[in-house]
């Protein structure tokens, strides 16, 4: 009788370990955080979880697919503005007004045509789920089919984020540079109620766990293997009969889908969305968190995004002008000395320990022949 041991099976966490990890995360998010954090700090953590959802998508597209996505602020902004428009319409209906308050100040007496569909909550939610991913799919097909990649793709995505922010600044019907703010309700629930604020935190925490679980399934599937193969040997994958463009488009679309959901939840939690939240600087900030946490891992982007956002808030409270320099220095150190991110340090330690440990005599990582007892 022969038994085959795979090195991959010895390094990947099993189902029990994965279930324990999700259970621990659920305990922290749904039990410990609400018990020990004030309402203000819990709201900040909910904001950080929105950034973590974006980071999971970037980790899939950049870490696994090699696509340096510098324009995730576009898809984040699409989801956020769609949600904000619906909430402003709902608030106006409660006051029995025909248009939101900021439009009345600007002298606009009729709801713009592109606002009208978002009067329906069903249409608004459907648009949040469909429009960012659909736009990403169309852009991806146009870019990847022409084999645009590397720095050219990064510059193109960054230019898209800049153009979207500039477009919003000049639009009075979306609040201009001030954006949309002062939301009163969220699908009928008063946002001023602390209980409803906690409900929002639980919703975004559940979304984050679902996003991580879905991304894990993608990474471990055959598609995940193809995505890594395209990143490392695109021409060889094409020679084997696969279209690398289609594989990239799927990852890019999934990342945009996650960003749109994160933007939609950002609006009721933070209470404002403006062009300053979706331009080049926020898009790069998303990327920095992923790079610091470890773009090739599943949890690295999540922890990196939360850690960077927390550090920004903590340092900004005490040293308002120092955070930009600290962020740049941290990014330079990680990229220059730890290209795999902080999560890569654990893998490096395991590899060093495996080289120092003597090989076991009774277990082979390739193939072990076991003779039946006589």
UniProtKB/TrEMBL annotation:
Please give the start and end residues of each transmembrane region: 20-37, 44-63, 111-144, 150-170, 199-219, 249-273, 285-310, 322-348
**Gene Ontology cellular component annotations, sorted alphabetically:** plasma membrane
| Pfam families given in the database record | BPD_transp_2 (PF02653)
Biased amino acid composition, Basic and acidic residues: 364-374
Main subcellular localisation = membrane
- Give this protein's Gene Ontology molecular function annotations: branched-chain amino acid transmembrane transporter activity
- Membrane topology summary: Multi-pass membrane protein
| Sorted UniProt keywords | Cell membrane, Membrane, Transmembrane, Transmembrane helix
Annotated region described as Disordered, given as residue ranges:
353-374
Location(s) in or outside the cell? Cell membrane
Task: Give the PANTHER family listed for this entry.
Answer: HIGH-AFFINITY BRANCHED-CHAIN AMINO ACID TRANSPORT SYSTEM PERMEASE, SLR1201 PROTEIN
Q: What is this protein called?
A: Branched-chain amino acid ABC transporter transmembrane protein
Q: Which organism is it from?
A: Rhodococcus coprophilus
